[in-house]
């Protein structure tokens, strides 16, 4: 794949407010946006307000000249519940979809995804992300591996009912033994996927630095023989380094340990600063542009978050400082570094 043909994307989060011109000035061509389950009462029933809003954002984004990669819902997620005042599990597929693990459930998932694909029409790009990080409890809870894998496969099968040319993939949360074990189930014989996707946050969620991406891209291509997409990658621009890990028995279920201590357990050389973040993005883009088996990437993310969706705190490094602009949409050094990198590295030799 030529460098100029690769995906130059960003995850359009958090708390966005239509900053399309600023994003376009970067040289970004793709945005990843979430789409939720469509109906609130029954299959092919009344569309939910959440779905209508997500659909409109995808249509608006496409109308502004961007390609959109829709991300379909995982089985659920651990997120902060304001009413409960704590992190709770929230299901994303209503009970009327069927009992998970049954053919009724998988067929309804297929038909739901077919509907979404046809409903979005040309507003959806050719690339789709099926579910999200199904290898970690944050998005899988304690569901068995076979249900996670078969739901992801059903998602892709349904999308391709709506658009046989769609290019689907999953995104494992990182490259480790557990992640590839589940990915092996997803990508077993008879799958409908075009690419292998992976998220990595070297220096934040995992040890290492941007250069560690090379080994991940090589290993995943060797294992699955499919082009590899970096569905999420980035570096937090703030957060202190913890001196020790907390006692796992003290951390509530579904809450990342980073949220519990409000500190990172990993950092790249120089720590978590806006300047280190900028250099990280610059080096990462050079890797993605040059790697022969990489489809491209979606940076995480556009804008800092007002609150961490895991724990609700406004100062939690787990989710609050990933943006290349701050909460007021003021560019960080990373904004300018990304702009330069996209212009410099994605040229054909």
Automatic annotation (TrEMBL):
Domain of life: Bacteria
Record-given protein name: Beta-xylosidase
